[in-house]
Amino acid sequence: MLKFLILDVYPSDNWRLVKDTAGGYGTGNNFGNSFLSKLMNFFVSKSIAMPPMSALYVYSIIKGKNCIIEYTKKILPQEELKNFDYIILPSSIIAHETEIETLNFLNRLGLKVFVIGIFGNIKKNIYNLDNSYVVKGEPEKFFLENKLEKKNLDNFFSNQNLGLFENRGEFVEILDDLPYPSWDIYLKKYPLRNNFLSFNKKSAIPILASRGCPYSCFNYCTYPLQQGRKVRYRSVKNIINEIIHWKNKVNTNKFVFRDPVFSINRKFTVELCNEIIKKKLNIEFLIETHLNNLDNELIKLLKDAGLKIVYIGVESVEEKVLKDINRFSIKNDAQFKIINKLSAEGIIVKSMYMIGNPEDTEETIKNTISYSKLLPNQLVQFSIFTPYPGTPIFKKFENIITTSKFENFNQYNLVFKHNYLNEKQINYFKNYAYRKFYLHYKNIGIVFRTLKSFFN
């Protein structure tokens, strides 16, 4: 019986690191060096935790093929590592150097390593060592379609067979073919947290309804690289069955939908919500979506189905800044109306902004920060524009990148030579933005509620 180990390594930073976000590149919430920012670093690092979903899907697939599979975030002693036939290494940009160091170590031991994840695909030449094989596209497809036999799998590590899988499709077309991720096994060793307000008492199970995103922000966004631009859906029945499964298995009613744009298909969203209500599942869930996909009727239905928190991308208040990065957004007055309706329904809104965009100046950043305080949102996120390798926009920046370390590409560092702003100014505005928003009198209540939820 073959033995596999998923070795999911991270650098030892003192802030939240999640590989599943930013289309599988990952993000690391380093809010800054002010007292408030350090407090937020601590709070968020203790409040949010999840692995790359693909790794847990792969776990379930391998387990279902009668193989031994384990998951760990720590490098095991050499004698234990050698007990495994194959190592599976999830790749990311936020842990890249740590992953490569680990990969070299495993290579020296002569261990065969399957590298999974989109960043491994983008930087295949770096991850592809003598004893490693970079799995193309969605790794679930590879492990679903291949016989997990030593003779077959060893072929992928011989030079003459490197192209063996390259001509097949990259994506799982029928998402219902995927088993449920092995969250019950994962929870025996690690937490699944999303401890914002009402999400603090139980494990928050990550779940997918769809994959893929067709929006124009693929110019700088990595989700289309990971999942493609064609949207693929699970059946409503399959999603409902998974929700019921986890409610019974791990005794939780908290779910975090990891779809890039949850409500992109209104008909599908209505059908799913109606089924949740009909089945009286009594769940609470979090989504990320585009304001263009929400209206009063759908907001009310989402609330009745259990929506508690919604993440929406605003990015900037300045039209010229958005146009430069090819970001589509609805008009500011429409943003206000939709966010106000969400808030009026008791749904927590987390608005996400980017500062340090190529056309940002001190004035445009200040305008965006001021705008964030005018909107009726309760939580905010200010990250820094990051040109990612592999995206179309990266070609404009590859010759002005100012860091040699990919782990700095965590959405909270300036990594290129900006036309108008330097690193010191960007870091100042990062601290300033959080201070101006969360210490504003109208937001003090949400700060206390959030801190209180942390101790419940």
Please provide a written account of the structure:
By secondary structure, this protein is α/β, with parallel strands linked by helices. The chain has two domains: 3-35 and 50-161, Rossmann fold; 193-455, Alpha-Beta Barrel (TIM Barrel). The protein is 37% helix and 16% strand. It is built from 18 helices and 17 strands. The chain has helices at residues 35-47, 53-64, 78-81, 96-108, 118-122, 124-127, 139-145, 150-154, 183-186, 223-227, 236-250, 266-278, 296-305, 319-324, 332-344, 362-374, 423-438, 444-455, and strands at 3-7, 17-18, 27-28, 48-49, 68-72, 86-90, 112-116, 132-134, 193-194, 204-207, 210-211, 232-233, 254-257, 284-289, 307-315, 348-355, 379-384. The protein has a six-stranded parallel β-sheet with strand order 10-13-14-15-16-17. A five-stranded parallel β-sheet has the order 5-1-6-7-8, with helices on both faces. Helix 12 runs parallel beside helix 13 (296-305) and helix 16 (362-374) packs parallel to helix 17. The chain starts with a strand and ends with a helix.
Topology, element by element:
Elements (H helix, E strand, L loop, with lengths): L2 E5 L9 E2 L8 E2 L6 H13 E2 L3 H12 L3 E5 L5 H4 L4 E5 L5 H13 L3 E5 L1 H5 L1 H4 L4 E3 L4 H7 L4 H5 L28 H4 L6 E2 L9 E4 L2 E2 L11 H5 L4 E2 L2 H15 L3 E4 L8 H13 L5 E6 L6 H10 L1 E9 L3 H6 L7 H13 L3 E8 L6 H13 L4 E6 L38 H16 L5 H12 L1
Parallel strand pairs: 1-5, 1-6, 6-7, 7-8, 10-13, 13-14, 14-15, 15-16, 16-17
Antiparallel strand pairs: 2-3, 4-9, 11-12
